[in-house]
Amino acid sequence: PKAPGWTLEGLRPGADLDVAVIGAGFSGLLAAHRLGQAGVPVVVYEKNEDVGGTWFENTYPGCRTDVASHLYNYSFAPRADWPDHFCRRDTVLEYLRDFAKESGVADRVRFGTEVRELRWDERERRWHLTLDGPGGPRTVTHRMVISAVGQLNRPQLPAVDGLGSFTGPAFHSAAWDHTADLTGKRVAVVGTGASAYQIVPELAGAASEVVVFQRNPPWLRPTPHYHQPLSGSTSWLCEHLPYYAQWYRFWLFAPGLRGILDGWIVDRGHPPTERAVSALNEQLRASLLQAMEAQLTDAPELREKVVPRYPVGAKRVLRDDGTWLATLKRDDVRLVTAPVERETPRGLVADGEEFEVDVIVYATGFQASRFLTPMKVTGERGVDLHTHWGGAPRAHLGISVPGFPNLFCLYGPNTNLVGQGGSIVYFSECATRYVLDAIRLLLTRDAEAVQVREDVHDDYNAWVDAASADRAWVWSKVSGWYKDGSRSSTNWPFSAAEYWTRTRRADPEHLRLR
Ligand code: N01
Known about the structure:
Layout: H1 8-11, E1 19-22, H2 26-37, E2 42-45, H3 54-57, H4 89-103, E3 109-110, E4 114-121, E5 126-133, E6 136-142, E7 144-147, E8 170-172, E9 186-190, H5 196-203, E10 209-213, E11 220-222, H6 232-240, H7 244-258, H8 279-295, H9 300-306, E12 318-320, H10 323-328, E13 333-336, E14 340-343, E15 347-350, E16 353-356, E17 359-362, E18 376-378, H11 385-389, E19 407-409, H12 424-444, E20 450-452, H13 454-468, H14 472-475, H15 496-502, E21 511-513
Parallel strand pairs: 1-2, 1-7, 2-3, 4-18, 7-19, 8-17, 9-10, 9-17, 10-13, 11-12
Antiparallel strand pairs: 4-5, 5-6, 14-15, 15-16, 20-21
The structure holds 3-acetylpyridine adenine dinucleotide (N01).
Residues 65-66, 152, 158, 160, 173, 190-196, 198, 213, 215-216, 316, 339-340, 363-366, 479-481 line the site of 3-acetylpyridine adenine dinucleotide.
Protein name: NAD(P)/FAD-dependent oxidoreductase
Keywords: FAD, Flavoprotein, Oxidoreductase
Family: Belongs to the FAD-binding monooxygenase family.
């Protein structure tokens, strides 16, 4: 998606329009940049002291993307010389810092400022924001608000008894305690998701013992170059051969454009049992199983523990270059296949057994389905957004909720891309383009407030829910952040291309402009 192609001055000179963006991660920086290009006054409120969002906060050892480097940047600000096939955390953060500085967006960010509350004022047709930042709490008003707070930002500690009773260091993976020296220590890592599978191999060998607590093992997808540097020739070609970088990006992205979702879909018409997966899903399972088994011929006991018993795609599939299973085979790594039940002063209890350790790392994920929490958001007629959602967040295109005018979400409900080429950066670009187009309509129609029509929102969500019901992550019994109860409010159940098409233009027929 390209720059807006219009300016505030060109459409409605002197219009009383200003926008607050919440969060200075990938989505927030992008929105602020696009608004700046359109000449719309914008302020970004960021709770941290730096840009980067999740890439600022996650500092755990081994942190890197699982999306190819060349896709993990803005399409209009590509970088040719990525050092790795899959960028490390510091590289991503450096990219975002450079972008914020070079685009001038950094000057628009109020750091160390958290938005606590949003309240719509119907008389003024403006949002009142309660901020907590330097100098204490204060209230400001803005015509519009764009929430760019991410889906995977607020850490989730497990609901176990005795939490906080451990006498040693215990912390969440996204709030790594760098004062804790893990060398030679017995370390517990709870979880086997995308965070844990990067952390555990880094700790193994340095710690005297790593005890890994697994509830549901992940499916692994062969990616031999996962930890390898990007070859010099690829970088050179991207930098010097005209259009090569675009072709390279397209090639990485091609699965997303083709919409290869079928492998994750459960056959329509089959009774929903764990066996009724589609033929493609079964093929995929067989190939991933084969790749895992090839690594486990010398460890039959481990095989029983690590081969998932749920359909591929029901949980996030992790990249595999052999590191994870090789780590689990080590003598100084112990895999416990029972949920943690309790924290004690000495360690953790699982399946009735107490495991004594010196340090606990909770790699237990994020409050993904609780969009916009812990902010309190009050829309038209005093309606509270979270009460309105009733635990099932929905938005039109993940962006707009009826009853909440001039409020837009980026990486909102049902916009997480699963198992295709592409990345959330691409989704944010599409959603931002849509938001800018809705603002254009507001300006050209001399309106002050815009929101999606309720019937359009409801029809859209019925379409999303119907498709989601056929996806492995909703249909399977396995739990995880892809699902919340019986539905998914996180994942996009269609192709990446479908989202591009739907967000290309804001349809005036879909909106209430007044
Ligand atoms: O969190 P998760 P994450 N006892 O929710 C387990 C992105 N990301 O931080 O599977 C024992 O996936 C829980 O078990 P179960 C990426 O989108 C990307 O790892 O629910 N275990 C699970 O194993 C990713 O998907 C990258 O049964 C307990 C784990 O904790 C998302 O962030 C890197 C438990 C939580 O896994 C989240 O990943 C990092 C208990 N009582 C993150 N309670 C890359 O790009 C929970 N668990 C590589």
